[in-house]
Amino acid sequence: MKKRVEIVKRIMDSNEQLAEQNRQKLDDHQVFGINVMASPGAGKTSFILQTISRLPEGLRLGVIEGDTAPVTIDADKITDAGMPAVQINTGGDCHLDANMVGLAIEQLDLNDIDLLLIENVGNLICPAGFALGNHANIVISSTPEGDDKPYKYPNIYRGVDVLIINKIDLLPYIDFRMDYFREGVEMLNPGLKTFEVSSKTGEGFDGWIEWLQEKVRTAQE
Predict the structure, then answer these.
(1) Three-state DSSP state, 32
(2) Which of 59-73, 75-89, 116-130, 142-156 is the most confident on average?
(3) Which of 16, 33, 107, 190 has the most Cβ atoms closer than 10 angstroms to its Cβ?
(4) Residues 6+ apart with CB under 8 A from 123
(5) Domain 2-219 CATH class label
């Protein structure tokens, strides 16, 4: 058991070092990086596409897409929307790590990017434990998933900077207690910045875009 613990520690230490290198590359090019986490089907890609459609002119976005299978469906959607994207195949792993992200960053021209969105693998457990080198972590929770997710998967909510509650257009049709959900989040991450949005209709995106613009401006100062 002791040997296994030591090996795990070495792996995590190595990941932290690589994450610091990734962070330095982004800082050197004044790129603000965001790790986007969510469960499968929460709407990560549709959220990113809606974000792209609402970006102010001149704000340049790049995307890293993480997936467990060698498919480019999501990355193709991003490039079709006119933004550069790099696909990472994790080979079945349930999360991205700093090494994967570092290799993907090398395929992007950071001189042409102001904002980097890293779409992590759809999972509410594994991604929370691995630093990537980004500046902010966000989690997307969708209303059809249920209002008990903060109580069942607390770690993913503890370490994030922003919470996106997606698919609010479905609230009239499903049993989702917003107060109960947000109380669970507040216990884990008091005062967490939260945006209630619909990636389908665009409702609620103005505040999110304003937050992004401010973060990008700060990164470029």
Answers:
(1) strand
(2) 142-156
(3) 33
(4) 37, 39, 40, 94, 95
(5) alpha beta
Q: What is the pTM of this model?
A: 0.92
What average pLDDT does the segment 45-59 reach? 95
Where b means 16+ CB within 10 Å and e means fewer, 171-204 reads: eeeeebeeeebbebbeebbeebebbbbbbeeeeb
In angstroms, the CA 30 to CA 27 distance is: 5
How far apart are the C-alpha atoms of 165 and 145, rounded to whole Å?
A: 11
Q: C-alpha angle 52/104/123, rounded to 5°?
A: 70
Amino acid at 28: D
Dihedral, CA of residue 86, residue 88, residue 89 and residue 93, to nearest 10: -160
Which CA distances in Å does 80 have to 122, 182, 191? 22, 35, 37
Parallel, antiparallel or unpaired: strands 162-166 and 32-38:
unpaired
Count of H helices and E strands in the chain? 8, 7
H or E element that contains 116: strand 115-119
C-alpha neighbours within 13 Å on the C-beta side of residue 23: 13
Give the pair of three-digit tokens for residue 147.
């209002």
Structure token pair of residue 62? 């790049």
Q: How far apart are CA 90 and CA 71, in angstroms?
A: 11
CB 144 within 8 A of CB 167: yes
Domain ranges of the chain: 2-219
Summarize the confidence of residues 187-211 as an average pLDDT. Answer: 98
